[in-house]
Each structure stands twice: as C-alpha cells, then as structure tokens.
Write a structure and sequence with these properties.
The protein is of the alpha+beta class and 150 residues long. The chain is built from 2 helices and 9 strands; from the N terminus they run αββαβββββββ. The chain has a single domain (30-148), classed as Jelly Rolls (Sandwich), CATH 2.60.120.1140.
Length: 150
C-alpha cells in the first residue's frame, strides 16, 4: 500500500516537473526596450518593456511568470491596426491593459484583468500596440502617448 502511494506521488511530481520544464523550454526570448510615456509632459515616465513582436512571442506573452518588476511590462506590437483579443491563461498576476493606436496614443484601457481568467478581453477599437503592466501600478489615461525606439 505504501509503495503504491509513493509511486502515485512520484508520478504526480514528474507530471508537474515536466509541465514546468515544458513551459520554460517553450518560453521565447524577449528583447527588452526602454520606452517613455507622457503622463506628465515635463517628466515622462520611463518603462522597461519586453517586446512581443512576432506571433510566437505574442501568443506566449506573460504566461508562466510569477511576477513582474515595477515600471516593467510587455509591449505587444503588430504591423497593422486590428481589433485585438487577450486572455489571462497561465498569467499569475493581475494586469492592466493599455490599447494604443498607430500614433502611440492610448485610446482604450482595461483595468485589473484577473490572473488565470480565460475570459476574452477584446479591444473595442482597432489598435496597433497593447501594453500589459501590473494592475493598479500606473494611472495612465486616454491620450497619453508612448514613445519607443524600435
């Protein structure tokens, strides 16, 4: 009986370990960039962002990360403006999503997307960029402009 319990526990451990190894081995390498957002024109806020600039990186996003440093985030970019869809599958912390037009201006904000929630988060307008940051960390507003050197 004890041997069966040990075998089952070992099996569960190996399954969990294999999922962790799979997640880490499939995590794309994200280029890090520094951007600024003009919350206050005289003192733009500096952001350290991971760039999700292809389908593999956009699909993986912030999944399987345990946390994110303050003033850090992930910037999703596309070549064109479209309605964009997001979800929080395998995302371990709540996020605010900022939707930008092709001029880098915030045109829509989705506050406090819940960790692990698989509900579709859909932009109401066509957007070219989406910035994900820790929920409640920033008071960015519609019209604030993001400046990055890609």
């Amino acid at each position: 009986m004890l041997k069966k319990i040990k075998t089952k526990l070992l099996g569960i451990f190996l399954i969990i370990l294999s999922e962790i190894v799979w997640a880490e081995s499939n995590r794309p390498v994200f280029k890090q960039i520094v951007c600024f957002i003009n919350v206050n024109k005289n003192n733009p806020q500096e952001l350290s962002l991971d760039l999700a600039d292809n389908e593999q990186k956009r699909s993986y996003g912030l999944m399987n990360r345990e946390d994110m440093r303050p003033s850090s985030g992930m910037l999703f970019i596309w070549k064109d403006s479209q309605i964009r869809n997001f979800w929080m599958k395998n995302t371990h912390f709540n996020l605010d999503l900022f939707f930008f037009n092709n001029h880098g201006e915030i045109i829509e904000i989705y506050k406090n997307a819940k960790a692990f929630d698989e509900t579709n988060i859909k932009s109401k307008q066509k957007v070219k960029y989406v910035l994900e940051m820790n929920a409640g960390e920033h008071n960015f507003q519609i019209g604030n402009k993001l400046k990055c050197n890609f």
